[in-house]
Amino acid sequence: DAKTTQPTSMDCAEGRAANLPCNHSTISGNEYVYWYRQIHSQGPQYIIHGLKNNETNEMASLIITEDRKSSTLILPHATLRDTAVYYCIVRPEINNNDMRFGAGTRLTVKP
Amino acid sequence: DAGVTQSPTHLIKTRGQQVTLRCSPKSGHDTVSWYQQALGQGPQFIFQYYEEEERQRGNFPDRFSGHQFPNYSSELNVNALLLGDSALYLCASSLLDSYTEAFFGQGTRLTVV
Lengths: 111, 113
Description:
The complex is a heterodimer.
Chain A: E1 9-13, E2 18-23, E3 31-38, E4 45-50, E5 55-56, E6 61-64, E7 70-75, E8 84-92, E9 105-110
Parallel strand pairs in A: 1-9
Antiparallel strand pairs in A: 2-7, 3-4, 3-8, 5-6, 6-7, 8-9
Chain B: E1 5-7, E2 10-13, E3 19-24, E4 31-37, E5 44-50, E6 53-57, E7 64-68, E8 74-78, E9 87-94, E10 103-104, E11 108-112
Parallel strand pairs in B: 2-11
Antiparallel strand pairs in B: 1-3, 3-8, 4-5, 4-9, 5-6, 7-8, 9-10, 9-11
């Protein structure tokens, strides 16, 4: 079973920041928070991951609370092409484990 | 550099038949994982292959089997197809024991009628 909890759906206005929350209260000390997204009819796409410090890349920012029990993915200027299902996953960083996906958050960016 | 490629893209099979799906990993990757994604749900882990051996397995029956070849490509076989096997089957490749992210293919849409 997935170890994360996310809202089922969210809307965001085009050009505004999209803030997607994720709860992972049972996260272990060696587990990272990963975010993937899946645009309709495509495979999931990696966005970002982090351990405890905030992370930023060209796609998004990841804010992890100090107790690491929750995090927020931020898309700073959402576009229509960001409409997708966003998955929050916790796992060790090293690629020797499967990924446990939940149902994710369906983000709809509206014009 | 080609990413993860899967074939075929779509497939229709009859209940009781057998199916084979194929995956070529991203160049440089040595590990292949397979996932099943039913409509409206997140991907569910089936199994992972490394060095031609099954390393991990999710909660799927023995009807689901796989293989990895020396060139790291992989096949997923499903026997005695059920209507409930209709789903998008995703392949993900990665480099074992590395910090790089996993890359997914576009998937194979299997419909069992």
